[in-house]
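Many introductory courses stop at the sequence. We go one step further.
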Amino acid sequence: MANKQQFQLHSLLTEQRHPRSFDLSTRIAADTADGLAALLSVDEDISAALQGVADDPARLAALEHASREITRALRDGHRLYFYGTGSTGRLAETIESGLWRPFWQRTAASPAMAKIEARFPGLGERVRGEITGGDRALIASLEGFEDIPEIGRLQLQDNGIRPQDLVFAVTEGGETSAVIGTALAAADQAGADARRTWFVYNNPDEVLRPFERSRRVLDDARITKIPLPTGPQAITGSTRMQATTTSLYVLGVVLEDATRALLREVLTGDELAALGFNDAGIAERLRGFATIQRTTAAAAQKLAAWTDREAASYAAGRHATYLATRALMPVFVDVTERAPTFRLSPLDAVDAVDAAERRSWIQVWTPAADGAQAWQALLHRPFHGLDKALYLPPFENGIDDPYLREAALRGLSNAGDEQQALYDLSFSDANLQRSGPQAGDTGALILLGDEAHADANRRWLQAFAAAGAEPVLVSVSARPLASDVLADVAALPRPVPVIAVTVPQRDAFELNQTIALKMLLNAHSTGVMAKRGRVVGNTMTSVQPGNLKLIGRATWLILSHVNAVLETPAWRTARGSTAPLTYAEANAVLFDAIEQRRSAPGASGLPEVELSVVAVLDALKADRPIDWNAAVTQLRAGGLSRYLAPYATATGAPGR
């Protein structure tokens, strides 16, 4: 309370509850399609925000300036560095490995490639996307890293970023220490050159100014700011959703616009069109997001069959497996982001998984012979871990806060190149034997863009059907599904749900299709977790308080749920007026709950937020100290949603 006030972030716009999804948990329990429609409707906020940018001469000019600077940097042989933490770190890696590198792999087969390479050699290697903690953090964030500004500076150095390279530091909150450290380090490296460093964020400046670290960036004339506020998230504080979708789309549009301008210097209009480029400018592309959003939202009814099927598999103790080729990066990102949001086990490591005792509910596969080839398919480059020789001395000697230093050293022990061998994403004989499909499992074959239907996809469908698992086909493309795909699905012994979304506008980086798939996956995975009780209302009450930001978020969730109940007519009628819980009290209870979860056998596996809410309300009802054993019994008997049900108002949720 005294020393970490800069991590009490509940004032941020991205941490507020969205009214459209306020009662998500009850809506989706009653009608899956209705709940998914509510989730997807929040993406309309992105359309409105992007329309606002397109209509704002100053903000549009900033994006057009960024495009010109990217063109200039690439023409002059420099690199682009995109950096983020957590969901924005996965955004950065998506820009490199999900958009940029796949485009150049497709272009390599084009007759135009020789002309491009002659003028701009090595262009496909000029974009680098990095997540705080390196590629291992794609699996699961490394504890404590995001709270350390120094790691941003170290990773900038580790990736060989030079003063003439462009740096895009992306943070949905606008306050992430590691991203701010990157922006300030890049500005120091470049001196007074304001064309070099860009700061992209999703909260209004006025709500960020109370945070000293944010002010340092906002007031630094060497850093160009790109504010992209969209409002609250569909799940409170889950910035993997609308905030990250907004930033990914905007940065993808700017990068594609800059690349088109560069290639126009060597290619004809017909050659550019053959690569997928069109004449739409940045403003037109931003306005065009609304069409993508409406097309995606229209799939809610079909999406519900998949959401119901996967939720039922988990309820029965079964698993899900996703197979993806072109869609591998957006699929992998959505799957790995579920773990911290909904307190799931991260992907199983190959040396820790037992077929009978798998901890992760889900796995992601891609057609590849082994784990090394699968990582190459995901990243389209070598795996990059953190070298202890570079990071260990600054961590030991340069981090004054003992909590952060200890957390950073723990994280560093799991961040090296050796981590690649621990995770095998291949659709291979070894993985089939180790964790292949079983009766009651769910499988999802995900196709993206103009992806050819490969033999591997056919084998995968047949293997799942033969095992008694329940496959689903999901496709996002500029064209309707090919007849051979539909024929393979029709040949299976049982009906297979098909979710096919056609996004007709073609673009060189396949950004539109990637964004549509991201929104579908986000809604689906959130819907599954809501149906499994990992969401109360539209709050992530299962969140794991594993860093300072999440401790602050968990505290705020306890505070808001308890005080919402205290304000309801049901509570006031039964017990009169009760003084609201304070932030300090909620924080103290949270730390007690963390200790209970560690040490009390009965509390093991229960989310700290839910345990705290029940414990506080029980204590207030009985006018006695907290009884953790009683809270455990209450929570295990029916979950937090059922416990709070008597206090639901006529509008469907406490305190609405």
